[in-house]
Design a protein that fits this description.
Helix 10 packs antiparallel against helix 11. The model has no long low-confidence stretch (mean pLDDT 88). By secondary structure, the chain is α+β, with helices and mostly antiparallel strands. The chain has eleven helices and twelve strands. It folds into two domains: 120 residues, 2-Layer Sandwich (Phosphorylase Kinase, domain 1); 204 residues, Aminoglycoside phosphotransferase (APH), C-terminal lobe (Aminoglycoside 3'-phosphotransferase, Chain: A, domain 2, Alpha-Beta Complex), CATH 3.90.1200.10. The strands form three sheets. It has a six-stranded mixed beta sheet, with helices on both faces. The radius of gyration is 21 Å and the shape is globular.
């Protein structure tokens, strides 16, 4: 039996949900699990939709019951065929980011091309996001430092599996997002223009950077902590580029978390600072000179997200706050 529970609040009309209802999904899940182990009874399967990214992908929790035992996995299905994500995770797993390592990723299990479905281990642990929003200061600083050490280890050892994401390409995307923000009018128009002008000027001053593997969406949401294991999830944007991008994304995502839940963009700055200090202790301070450019660029990117994802509560104020922070980082 297959039961699918949709998160209808987020995306009631998604084509992905219609895709999930196909009998083929149930058949493939049964084939995969019976191929792993012999069961004496049919599988009962429950799929709970965790998050929709409309027009892109859907993340699900898949729980299977067989012989009275529950097995939990994470599944991700995509609008476009993405076998590259499975290959990336396999390569990282082979390089030592496995479940026996203190710095790990979820175990990739299988990619089913006909369903565009990636199955992976469901990792136990608390997200750094949850810890940052908690009240245990010791645990918060530990989470920031563990997040930094994972990233430093990754930047030092992870293989380069993709083409380089150049800073010129990133600037082109920033310009495209600025054009969209300018159309909103009012203070957002002027602040968007001002921030992009500063980004153009800062781009001309950037020093040449080493190239490393990049997570490209590194944030407190994507880091899970267990007692002896730090695990990073969400490998859809893996690339190669300047390591300063991943640091900037974590710092600005932490600021956005503070803005959304603690009413002040500065409320978690001490944790962002601890994150940066721990990273520098592992890999040196060379990355810091390029950090303002990528922080400001991330502010513009998240302003665009807040503006055009109208499910973000109070999005107008958050857009302006992100733009103000980007301008501040690059200097008045």
């Amino acid at each position: 039996m297959l039961e699918i529970v949709s998160n209808t609040v987020n995306c009631p009309d998604s084509a992905l949900f219609a895709f999930l209802e196909k009998e083929e999904l149930s058949r493939h899940l049964n084939l995969f699990f019976f191929g792993q182990k012999q069961f004496d009874s049919p599988l009962d399967t429950r799929i709970r939709v965790l998050k929709w990214h409309q027009g892109n992908r859907c993340t699900m929790e898949i729980t299977l019951k067989a012989d009275g035992v529950f097995h939990a996995l994470i599944g991700k299905t995509y609008v476009l065929d993405r076998p590259d994500i499975y290959r990336t995770m396999e390569a990282l797993w082979r390089e030592g980011f496995d479940h026996n390592a203190p710095n790990s990723i979820p175990q990739p299990l299988i990619y089913m091309p006909s369903l565009r479905l990636l199955l992976q281990e469901k990792v136990a642990g608390a997200s750094v996001r949850e810890i940052f929003l908690g009240c245990d200061r010791h645990r918060q600083f530990e989470a920031a430092e563990r997040s930094a050490r994972w990233l430093a280890h990754f930047h030092s050892l992870a293989p380069h599996l993709t083409q380089v994401s150049t800073v010129e390409n990133q600037l082109t995307r920033l310009q495209r997002w600025t054009v969209r923000l300018v159309e909103l009018g009012g203070a957002v128009t002027e602040k968007s223009k001002q921030l992009f002008e500063k980004l153009q000027a800062a781009h001309g001053q950037l020093q040449e950077a080493e190239l490393t593997a990049g997570h490209n969406s590194y944030s407190p949401d994507h880091v899970l902590l267990a007692e002896k294991r730090t695990t990073v999830i969400d490998w859809d944007s893996y690339d190669t580029g300047d390591p300063a991008r991943d640091l900037a994304r974590f710092v600005v995502a932490t600021q956005r978390l503070a803005l959304g839940h603690l009413s002040s963009i500065r409320a978690l700055d001490s944790l962002a600072d601890a994150f940066l200090r721990a990273y520098v202790a592992e890999r040196g301070a060379g990355v810091l000179s390029r950090l303002p450019f990528y922080e400001a660029g991330t502010c513009l990117k998240l302003a665009k997200y807040c503006a055009f994802n109208r499910q973000v509560p109070g999005w107008e104020k958050k857009v302006e706050a992100m733009l103000d922070e980007g301008i501040r980082v690059l200097g008045n």
